[in-house]
Amino acid sequence: MPTILIVGASRGLGLEFVRQYAADGWRVLATVRDIAQGRAVSEAGAEVYICDVADLASVTRLAASLADTGLDIVLHSAGIYGERQEFGAVDPDEFLKVMRVDALAPLKMAEALADRLCGRKIFAAMSSMMGSVAENTSGGSHAYRAAKAALNMVIKGLAIDLAPRGILTVALSPGWVRTDMGGPTAPLEPPESVAGMRKVLAALTPENSGRLMHYDGRRLDW
Cα angle at 211 between 220 and 162, to 5 degrees? Predict the structure, then answer.
């Protein structure tokens, strides 16, 4: 039975990933920040672990608890949008908080769990088209854009660092999805976005390792 760890599964896309992989017969492990968030994840078919990705000691504890567990895929879905990031009002502490959660945390998770990867050997992280320099035509959202651009570079670097171990990496762009972050006017529903990203993961090859991939299978420009 293939096994996936979904980091950040309490709601939105993370929770939908749990539902779809569990329904397809995968063993699904999933993290939430506190036990109160775990019920829906457990009911969706996952084994629940507690991990706050902003706390590096918590990441270390998660890795220790999975010491004897082989993982086909690690999917880092945890992330935040942040506040006070428009030009003229950027809050430095908030900017650094978003960078820590959205860019540094996936890197530390990869460091902690790379040795657990076996079988399909994929490390994936939830990025965004907003992290593409080429696609930025509207400005604003400085912390979120910068953090996702940094995450994209992390994923590219990991593709090189982990290639000798046979590990593939990918940054996933989910599209504009109707979640708490995406808002009620977004055109995509979570099941459609997640189904597309699962196809990307299933078809991932060394040629696409380290790339930013849209949910519809397109390779996005940096």
Answer: 175
Q: In the structure, how many helices (H) and strands (E) does the chain have?
A: 7, 7
Distance separating alpha carbons of residues 34 and 49, to the nearest angstrom: 9
Residue 64 near residue 46, CB atoms below 8 Å: no
Strand order in the sheet with 27-32: 46-50, 27-32, 3-7, 71-76, 117-126, 168-173, 211-214
Closest CA to 12 of 108, 112, 79, 82: 79
Q: Specify whether the CB–CB gap between 146 and 99 falls below 8 A.
A: yes
111-151 confidence digits (pLDDT tens): 999 999 999 999 999 999 888 988 888 888 899 999 999 99
Instruction: State the DSSP H helix or E strand holding residue 112, giving kind and residue range, or none if neither.
Output: helix 105-113
